[in-house]
Amino acid sequence: MKYTVIPSIIITLLVLTGCKKTVERPLYPVNPKPLVQEAYIKLPLGSVRPGGWLEDQLEIQASGLTGHLDEFWEDLVHSGWKGKGGESWERGPYYLDGLIPLAYTLNNNRLKLKVDEWMDIILNSSRPDGWFGPETTTDRWPLAVASKVLMEYYEATGNQKALDVITGYFRYLHDNEPDWPDKEWRGVRAMEHAVVGYWLYKRLKEPWILETIESIQKNSFDWTEYYCTFPWDSTAVTEGLIPHNWQAEGLTAHVVNNAMAIKYPGLWYQQSNDDRYREAVFTGLENYIKHHDQAAGRFSGDEHLSGKSPAQGTEMCAVVEYMYSLEKLFSILGDILLADRLEYLAYNALPGTMTADGWTHQYDQQSNQVLVSVAERNWSTNRDESNIYGLMPNYPCCLANMHQGWPKFVEHMWMATHDNGLMAGVYGPSSVKALVGKGTVVKITEETDYPFEGNIMFKIETVKKVKFPVYLRIPFWSEESTIEYKGEKIIAKAGEIVKLSGKWENGDSISLNLPFNIRTERRYNNSISILRGPLYYSLRIGKEYSNAEMSYKKYDYLGAMDWQITASTDWNYGLLFDEENPGESIIVEKHPVTEYPFADKGDVLWSGENEQHITWDKDAPVVIRVQGVKIPGWGLENNSAANPPPGPVISDGEAEEIELVPYGCAKLRITEFPVIKR
Ligand SMILES: [Zn+2]
Fold this sequence. Notes:
Helix 6 packs across helix 9 and helix 17 runs antiparallel to helix 18 (336-352). The chain is α+β, with helices and mostly antiparallel strands. Strands 3-8-9-10-17-13-14 form a 7-stranded antiparallel beta sheet. Strands 18, 19, 20, 23, 24, 27 and 31 form a 7-stranded antiparallel beta sheet that branches. Strands 1-15-12-7-6-2 form a 6-stranded mixed beta sheet, with no helix packed on it. Residues 315-317, 397-398, 401 line the site of zinc ion (ZN).
């Protein structure tokens, strides 16, 4: 598949209402002048709720790791952010940045009580000069995260104190000297503050807030220039020029910093009104795709940017931060490309780097991942235990930061529009309750097994007839999508946004069908990956689970584990199929989505119900059958699958039927396959 990076939205007016153009009174806070208006308006936390399998996925988190981590991990149990004497840097705020959206998205009282335990302390930690947080904390970086926490908390609860603490902190930043050194996390990540800054300006409309953001933009590392010149390209990888250090230069090649920073030019675009910043976002995305692209929507970094070989890894923090960046960028810029990529990450890279029970995660995931073990690999800077599915392999940042992935994704699935309608930006089972039209509350329920299936049904609930537009995104990969509503049938083009205008009444529905044709992507060494809808498909490999010996303390607490996984079946297959018509040589088999949506046969999972680990015996929601041929000599190299032999591979080897499952369900996998030619 080819990516076309076009920073423009094509809006098709499919139904002309014939009414006079009126300026609608905004129902949600919008960007005040002089800011450039955002494409879409984020709804307050709690407006969007998960349904179907996605609700199960968030419940796994609530009843599992997120809902229990603060009970046994010392860094949270004794956190300085909770008024104790322990860890007082980023871990408490990171955890809350996931716990709060999870608690309020699920409306889960047990989790809300946990939130209160932290917030009671944080809300009372504000000092006269505006600084807040643990007494010993002098670094601005954890306060950047904590500000996002307070923003989410305010949206969910309306607690005025949260707004006051944020306002005080921004006053502090305004009144004190810039302190954003390039060689420190707080410096390279300084513009993370702008997320909260613009949110605050929407509410207070006070010019000093924009002065504060301008000062941060002008006194911190210039990511816009970085994306335009992009020093860490493929040549830098092959020539060994990527700075593998933790100094100023190394921090610009750091995968998580890159995943966060891609939104910074987009944030500043709102205030600068200069297209250079908008364009830098798309130039940056192109550079990631060209030089570091990996299957599953991610770019590599283990933990410095590390090129396109499918043996290289991506740190989990980079997955959740890239998702959050795309959520913000889609809201500001509205380009479909951003939402397409967000779905790739959420539905492939995120579940692929956790076990289906949510209890364990990897530091680094790989596209061709055939051995999960403590062993040396070709990582740029990470340690030997980085691809273990464990509690805190390599370093505990991901353990603290991973919780935001699913709940923030749900939070951003639907957005408000400037003509007082609603936009379905990314798809999945969910419901949205929001104000539309002249202020009527409606609920739209989205029923679907997406991303496993392409049929989506939207059902509208309203107490009275109400006129408002519904916008639907048509992904770039979806040709000939059909929409049926009010007796009409519309064929939509790939990469457009469809506007459905009309007067809606209770019980109205919209049916959207996105055809899930099999597609291929050309990848490393002329290999290919197979896609269907937003999902990548990987070879299903037999798995043997065993206990990994880790460098850190073990916890005997519910599902906390450290898994080593070895392959019990061969994985060295090339694909034998008709590249021109990939759908012809492939059989798609569908299975029910289970209570562990991303589990596959042979996975070992923590069952909360049985209070023990069980071996899962049900199929992944989709299994694809295709012909494969073994490639003798393709084996391990430095404990990863060697790079796929350059294709096409000429072979008269025996053809066998092989099975592919979604990347997110495959804890061992081949995703970049050599192509076999007879
Ligand atoms: Zn991390």
